[in-house]
Amino acid sequence: MTKRILHVVTNVDHYDDPSHPTGLWLSELTHAWHVFEKAGYEQHIVSPKGGLSPLEPRSLKFPNVDKTAKEWEADPARMALLENTKSPDEINPADYDAIYFTGGHAVMYDFPDSEGLQRITREIWENGGVVSSVCHGYCGLLNTQLSDGNLLVAGRKLTGFAWTEEVVARVDKLVPYNVEEEMKKRGALYEKALVPFVPNVVVDGRLVTGQNPQSAKATAKKVVSVLEGS
Question: In CATH, what is the architecture of 4-228?
Answer without folding.
Answer: 3-Layer(aba) Sandwich (3.40)
